[in-house]
């Protein structure tokens, strides 16, 4: 990846390292579907003026079916599944299940981007790092298995969405694509959200968490993420789910004075090693290398 791609990777990792914490705060007073619709509505309100100023909304013409499909598999379905799933399982288990995403992407793209042994090792090591870092806490209520299934389905949905963005929407400017997906999501979920309006006063913490989810974790994060997919591809962009738990843990250390233990250092190290292996370029086929050598010989 080039320097811009690495910067976008770091930005998305940070912005998507905090939503699970914010969701926990928001759903104290707000229904899950209201949180999802609210954060996408806020994101759309922020991005529409930007896209209009840049004159990029015209890029959506003829692309609405694809944009609608991306909206469903990248926002409507996974955001809703995660928000409801987190009501029944721990945040650490949520992070582990979401970390399945890079593996799912690699399997889905295995025909066009073969899985080399070094990449497989990187994916396994990185996933092991996530498990060590966040701990295997399978606690939850009686619907814990259902909640885990929801989050796992969301991870697979994310993987499919990233492939669609790379293959079908790489020519759409990120701000236009984000406007399209967030507006469609808001329209789809608004009727259900209006049926689940809060019946009691909503605390400032819940409103603040919702605004942060909309502006930072949806609008800005999707802008950066869609651009990252175009620059680096789905396989590499998907590795942000390995880094997200690191960000979440560091925020706990900085904001909540949590301690860094041996498991933290070990998990972080495994994630770094796994990401390094997973981003190694595949070796060129021998035939290609032979042709290059022959070409150089002919020039001599």
Output the helix-strand order: HHHHHHHHHHHHHH
Point out poorly predicted stretches: 287-297
The average pLDDT value, as a whole number, equals 80
User: Major β-sheet, in short?
Assistant: none
- Oligomerization: single chain
Helix content: over 70%
Shape descriptor? globular
Give me the secondary-structure category.
mainly alpha
DSSP strand content: under 5%
Task: Find the count of extended strands (DSSP E, 2+ residues).
Answer: 0
Number of helices: 14
Between the first and last Cα atoms, what is the distance in angstroms? 34 Å
Radius of gyration equals: 20 Å
Any key phrases for this structure?
300 residues, mainly alpha, 76% helix
Q: Your description of this structure?
A:
Mean pLDDT is about 80; it is low at about 285-295. About 75% of the residues lie in helices and about 0% in strands. The radius of gyration is 20 Å and the shape is globular. The chain is mainly α. The chain is built from 14 helices and no strands.
Brief summary:
The protein has helices at residues 3-15, 19-26, 32-54, 64-85, 91-98, 101-108, 117-134, 144-168, 174-194, 204-232, 234-237, 240-256, 262-278, 286-299. By secondary structure, it is an all-alpha fold.
């Amino acid at each position: 990846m080039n320097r811009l791609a690495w910067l976008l990777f770091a930005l998305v990792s940070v912005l998507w390292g905090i939503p699970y914490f914010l969701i926990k705060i928001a759903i104290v007073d707000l229904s899950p579907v209201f949180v999802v619709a609210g954060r996408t509505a806020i994101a759309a309100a922020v991005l529409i003026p930007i896209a209009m100023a840049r004159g990029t909304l015209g890029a959506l013409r003829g692309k609405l079916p694809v944009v609608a499909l991306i909206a469903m598999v990248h926002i409507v379905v996974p955001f809703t599944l995660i928000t409801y799933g987190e009501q029944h399982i721990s945040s650490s288990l949520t992070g582990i299940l979401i970390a399945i995403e890079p593996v799912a992407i690699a399997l889905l793209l295995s025909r066009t981007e073969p899985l080399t042994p070094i990449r497989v090792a990187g994916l396994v090591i990185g996933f092991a790092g996530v498990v060590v870092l966040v701990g295997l806490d399978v606690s939850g209520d009686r619907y814990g298995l259902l909640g885990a299934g929801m989050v796992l389905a969301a991870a697979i949905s994310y993987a499919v969405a990233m492939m669609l963005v790379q293959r079908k929407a790489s020519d759409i400017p990120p701000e236009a694509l984000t406007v399209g997906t967030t507006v469609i999501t808001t329209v789809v979920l608004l009727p259900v959200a209006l049926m689940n309006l809060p019946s009691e006063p909503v605390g400032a913490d819940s409103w603040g968490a919702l605004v942060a989810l909309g502006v930072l974790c949806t609008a800005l994060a999707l802008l950066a993420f869609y651009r990252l997919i175009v620059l680096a591809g789905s396989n590499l962009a998907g590795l942000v789910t390995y880094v997200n738990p690191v960000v979440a843990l560091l925020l706990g250390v900085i904001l909540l004075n949590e301690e860094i233990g041996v498991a933290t250092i070990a998990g972080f190290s495994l994630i770094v090693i796994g990401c390094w292996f997973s981003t190694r370029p595949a070796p060129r086929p021998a035939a290609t290398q032979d042709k290059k050598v022959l070409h150089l010989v002919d020039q001599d």
